[in-house]
Amino acid sequence: MVGLKEELLKSIWHAFTALDLDRSGKVLSHNLCTVLNVPHDPVALEEHFRDDDEGPVSNQGYMPYLNKFILEKVQGNFDKVEFNRMCWTLCAKKNLSKSPLLISDEDAFKVWVIFNFLSEDKYPLIIVPEEIEYLLKKLTEAMGAGWQQEQFDHYKIALNTSREGLTAWDLIELIGSGRFSKGMDRQTVSMAINEVFNELILDVLKQGYMLKKGHKRKNWTERWFVLKPNIISYYVSEDLKDKKGDIILDGNCCVEALPDKDGKKCLFLIKCLDKSFEISASDKKKKQEWIQAIQTTVNLLRAGSPPPHKEARQKRKELRQKLLAEQEELERQMKELQTANENKQKELETVRKQLEAAAARAAEEEKKRLQTQVELQDRFSLELEREKMVRQKMEEQVAQKSSELEQYLQRVRELEEMYKQLQEALEDEKQARQDEETVRKLQARLLEEESAKRAELEKWHLEQQQTIQMTEAEKQELENQRMIKEQALQAAMQQLEQLELERKEALEQYEEVKKKLEMAANNTKSWKDKVAHHEGLIRLIEPGSKNAHLITNWGPAAFTEAELEQRQKSWKGKKTTSE
Q: Keywords for this entry (predicted)?
């Protein structure tokens, strides 16, 4: 009843606002009681309007009377079209546009009723752009034309910039102008409006001609069937003037396809509790559409759901309310952010002023500091000039003395350098001779060691041969001794190889020392000539007398007796360790 009351209030609101204020309540109440089949109470009406008559939505105006004495008594046993036509008659003349429209007054009435169905539940009544788009799409689909989304988007943008939505009269003018039905004749537009009106207002889910089999004479007769949420009515023709019967639908009904029989095709059966109805559609497509539509209606009755278009309208309304709530929440958050931002701006302004004051103080202090710095720089500049003059005089004197000293020192350095080079040449010659003697001694000792090692190896080899001929009882012990001696032999061989390498290195060192000695002798001779030629004061330094050298198979030895004894001790120590 709440949904019915809201639908009635929208039409009543249009009628009430179109009437004169002094007679609107009484005239409208009488007409409402007539079309809604509600008993009229003139006494209650006069009592209610005795003091004031302030309008349809005031607490003490017409609304309290309308709710209490009319709407609460409505039972639903009235003609909705007749009720809407009465309200339309009261308001159309005053509000309908005088400019020529492409739709008839009857079509304008149907658009007005559709507006009341799709408009928002707040006053003054408007239809939002989303519902306008829904309605225009339905009309375009009913006309068999293509939907122009881009054209509507431009219209929607222009509409949103000026207002929230359209009134009923704006909607009638929009559809009547043919803006979204270009290329369609008046009859096509009228049929589309009638089809949408039947679906949304009269709850016509499907309609069309089909053949129905009679219950008594069993003959087939063409009828105009109209499917609504809980009933299927059939008429002689589509003008709905001669009604022949109803098929009451509930959750227990069912519909099923039948095979072709008796020359009839595309048959289906509607089963109800009291009787069944055999119906023949014009083709298989129509048959399937009717079966599906009837089955959907029965399923909705079983689930207790409203018709699809009403459920869709409720979902769209809930979605808009949700989006509106989200938008309001977003606006609230934006306001909070804006308030926080303003507070931050104030804080930043305070900080900025503090920084400006601090900057002014710092600038003043910087100015004083710069002034003091300039005074100090002037004073230091004078002192610096005086110091520069004194330093310049001292530098001139120092430069003169330095020149004299440099000439003297240059002479001394030249003499020292010549003496140093001579000393180095003599040292090189002496060192070369010593290295030569050392290499010769080393070569002799290496040869002796090599001979001793060879003799020792021969001896070990003989001992090994003798050891092999011993008895079996001593064989294990001799084997151990043989292993030890073999290890010693290997160590001796390694030492022999090492001595061979050292002998080769000694020969190489000898060649190098010989070359150095020749170079030193040449350098000594050269420097002797230079010194005698330069001064004539330095006497030539000759190498001292040489001690007697050891003689080897290859010539004079390169070692002294002391170095040879030292090497013998070292070799004996290594030999003892290896054994």
A: Cell membrane, Cell projection, Coiled coil, Cytoplasm, DNA-binding, Membrane, Nucleus, Phosphoprotein
Instruction: Answer left, alpha or beta for residue 266, where phi above 0 means left and psi between -120 and 50 means alpha.
Output: left
Q: Residue 442's CB: how many other CB atoms inside 10 A?
A: 23
- Which of 112, 100, 110, 90 has the alpha carbon at shortest distance from 168? 112
357 CB-near residues (< 8 Å, 6+ apart)? none
Per DSSP, the three-state class of 314 is helix
Q: 536 φ, ψ to 5°?
A: 75, 15
Among 42, 106, 38, residue whose Cα is nearest residue 74: 38
Token pair of 262 as six digits: 């008796």
Residue type, position 557, single letter: A
Hey, CA dihedral for 311, 317, 318, 319, is it positive or negative? positive
The gap from C-alpha 487 to its chain's centroid, in whole angstroms, comes to 78
Greatest distance between any 2 Cα atoms in the chain: 170
Q: Which residues contact 465 (CB under 8 A, 6 or more apart)?
A: none
**Residues 48-99: tens digit of each pLDDT:** 665 444 444 344 566 777 777 787 888 777 888 898 999 999 888 888 877 7
CA distances from 561 to 301, 488, 558 (A): 136, 29, 10
What residues contact 236, with CB distance under 8 A and at least 6 apart?
A: 223, 224, 242, 244
- Are 128 and 320 in contact by the 8 Å Cβ rule? The answer is yes
CA distance 145 to 139: 9
| CATH code of the domain occupying 206-306 | 2.30.29.30
Write out pLDDT tens, residues 121-149.
888 888 988 889 999 998 998 888 888 88
Instruction: Please choose, from the candidates 190, 266, 194, 203, the residue with its C-alpha nearest in 3D space to the C-alpha of residue 233.
Output: 203
Which residues lie below 8 Å from residue 338, measured CB to CB, with a gap of 6+?
none
Contact (Cβ atoms closer than 8 angstroms) between residue 164 and residue 133 = no
Q: Contact, 398 vs 496, CB < 8 A?
A: no
Mean of the pLDDT values across residues 241-262?
90
| Contacts with 278 (C-beta within 8 Å, 6 or more apart), sequence order | 212, 213, 258, 267, 268, 269
